[in-house]
Specification:
Elements lengths: L2 H24 L13 E2 H9 L6 H12 L2 H9 L3 E5 L5 H11 L5 E5 L7 H22 L16 H8 L11 E6 L9 H11 L4 E6 L11 H8 L1 E5 L7 H5 L6 E2 L2 H13 L3 H16 L6 E2 H10 L6 H13 L3 E5 L5 E5 L3 H12 L1
Helix pairs in contact: 6-7, 11-15, 12-15
């Protein structure tokens, strides 16, 4: 093929390409919209997904057993000051919690569910500080030591003061640390830089040990070199479990599925079952008021406190606030300001869903 034939062939290809683009752009485009698609009800879709029969059970059980044989090694890694980062396909929630109940029995443990849409990191750090303080008091009693009696409440301290306490170099107590388990440290409520920086600062404290899991393929992009090697100081553990994401997926809507009332009730019930009976009863008081006064903007916080105090559900405003914090973290309630300027609470469920929740779950 000579040069002239090659040039003619290339010209023909270019002309046909642009002609095709021109004809393609002139065609009538589809007027169909996503809203017109007949979507499956979310509850129905979840029910079908839950009934999928597991496969290769023997192989999966053997895989989990092989990880359990590493528990002593993981504990040694934690004692050496590193943080454990679990990655691999499948939910690692059950594995991490089994490791904690089996090998971390000598230490206080705090669990953070990063798969929730929002997480209260300040409350997490306060809890860690309180547990460390209790652990120190117990250790000092057995060693005839003493601690300062003038202890400022941790819930009134700044984040900097709390981190300083968790990193105190003057605590001469051997192996005195608290553990924090973070399921899905790459979860939607923790992906912002401030949350990751806070978690990294906590992990870097000398009296804290962290065990975390990641599932998103781009999770390592959340951290810079300093966070990985100096603050978190990760020890990477490849632990594919092939386990379904049953709990984690509960808080995420299925793609191309309608959300239904039944699903809202199911999600709320899972959250409430993880709370104390008093917290459930406080939620019930708020729910009953919302159903009885559908035209109001919500229940004033002062009224809720008075009612709960009369029913002996809370002993102080601080106790009530801790329950409300849990509700807000799990996005069960919202705060609104009514026309009188009062802060009111309302539950983020329809009346139909709320009635089913009270009848089937709380009552």
């Amino acid at each position: 093929m000579d040069l002239e034939e090659i040039e003619e062939e290339e010209f023909g290809f270019s002309r046909n390409y642009f002609l095709a683009k021109e004809l393609g752009s002139s065609k009538k485009k589809s007027a169909r919209k996503l809203s017109e698609i007949d979507l499956v009800d979310e509850e129905e879709l979840r029910e079908v997904a839950a009934n999928i029969e597991p496969k290769h059970e023997k192989e999966v059980n053997d895989l989990i057993s092989s990880y359990k044989s590493l528990y002593s090694k993981w504990l040694l890694v934690l004692r050496s000051g590193f943080a454990l980062l679990m990655y691999g396909f499948g939910s690692k929630k059950a594995l991490i919690e089994d490791f904690a109940t089996t090998s971390l029995t000598d230490y206080s443990v705090v669990v953070v569910n990063g798969y929730l849409q929002s997480v209260n990191l300040k409350q997490m750090v306060i809890t860690l500080a309180e547990l460390l303080w209790d652990q120190l008091k117990l250790r000092r009693k057995t060693t005839s030591g003493s601690l300062s009696k003038s202890q400022q409440p941790f819930n009134t301290r700044s984040m900097a003061d709390l981190l300083a306490f968790l990193d105190r170099p003057d605590l001469e107590v051997e192996e005195c640390f608290v553990c924090i388990l973070v399921h899905n440290i790459d979860g939607p409520g923790l992906r912002d830089s401030d949350s990751q920086q806070c978690l990294a600062s906590v992990a870097a404290c000398s009296h804290v040990r962290m065990v975390a899991s990641i599932d998103h393929v781009n999770a390592p992009l959340l951290w810079d070199k300093k966070m990985v090697h100096t603050l978190f100081d990760w020890y990477w553990c490849h632990v594919p479990t092939c386990a379904p994401y049953k709990v984690e997926a509960t808080f995420f809507p299925f793609i191309l599925a309608h959300g239904g009332t039944a699903q809202s009730v199911k999600t709320a019930s899972i959250v409430l079952q993880s709370l104390t009976p008093n917290a459930q009863n406080v939620f019930k008081v708020l729910a009953e008021h919302q159903l009885a006064h559908p035209d109001e903007e919500g229940m004033p916080i002062n009224n809720l406190y008075t009612t709960c105090r009369e029913r002996f559900l809370v002993s102080s405003q601080v106790t009530l606030n801790s329950h409300l914090t849990e509700f807000k973290d799990h996005e069960l309630i919202k705060t609104k300001r009514n026309s009188d300027g009062q802060d009111c609470l309302c539950i983020s469920l329809t009346n139909e869903a709320l009635q089913k929740l009270i009848a089937e779950i709380i009552s």
